[in-house]
Design goal:
Protein name: ATP-dependent Clp protease proteolytic subunit
Function: Cleaves peptides in various proteins in a process that requires ATP hydrolysis. Has a chymotrypsin-like activity. Plays a major role in the degradation of misfolded proteins.
Subunit structure: Component of the chloroplastic Clp protease core complex.
Number of strands: 9
Oligomer: single chain
CATH architecture: Alpha-Beta Complex
Active site: 110 (nucleophile), 135
CATH class: Alpha Beta
CATH superfamily: 2-enoyl-CoA Hydratase, Chain A, domain 1
Order of helices and strands: EHEHEHEHEHEEHHEHEH
Number of helices: 9
GO molecular function, one term: ATPase binding
Structural class: alpha/beta
CATH topology: 2-enoyl-CoA Hydratase, Chain A, domain 1
Radius of gyration: 20 Å
Low-confidence stretches: 221-238
Number of domains: 1
Strand content: 15-25%
Helix content: 40-55%
Length: 252
Amino acid sequence: MPIGMPKIPFLIDEDEDEDEDAKERNATWVDLYNVLYRTRSIFLGDAIHLEIANHIAGLMIFLTIQDATQNIYLFINSPGGLAVAGLLIFDTMQYVKPPVYTLGLGVLASMASFLLVGGEMSKRIMGPNSRVMLHQPESDYNGKDQMEEVFLDIEEIEDIREMVIKAYLERTRLTREVLNDQLERNYFMPATEAKYYGIVDEIGVKNLLGRLLDESASQDNSLDPDAPDEGASQDNSLDPDAPDETRPPKLR
């Protein structure tokens, strides 16, 4: 969590007859992320570990119970992290009923790229200046005195690696040959290449924020009821000026 996160006023029951000063006095001050959760937006902006994974999975389940018809938005900017924690979030995304948009911003490395791929098909979006880095699961053998423990650990990592590869093959246009090559080296893939291989479906999030606010306003009267309607079409949320690569990029 960033240092000095601001608190902002949130009106639970807004009275249209109140003036602005009265509204501010009656507002409940909450942190920024709390308000963003009310727009069904979840941010993963740190390394992936079990505490964060439990928090995100719990939020997705709560939002599903709250309203199973509204989209969930998962914003990702992460260096990756623990494989089992990433798998927890991935499985929850497949379990919940609402479509889960995944929006990649900044760097999406290792398990973070896996979560980007795990979003609802056709609803995986990436910023034009973002980078994806595929990486195989790793293990730390430190502190393991018995060779049997090391072999068991290697076997577990191989099982997880196969699960990750299977998901990539099912949800992208990556071949096993290209995937094996990518997993063995730290190659940062640009957005156009990620779209070509089917890791994401669209590049650019030009009008997504306006539509997100509209969807939230439709189910929460504490948000601005006068927000412009930009959500009539799913396609309008995407950047019409995003580049569309039709030729395979060169692997470096």
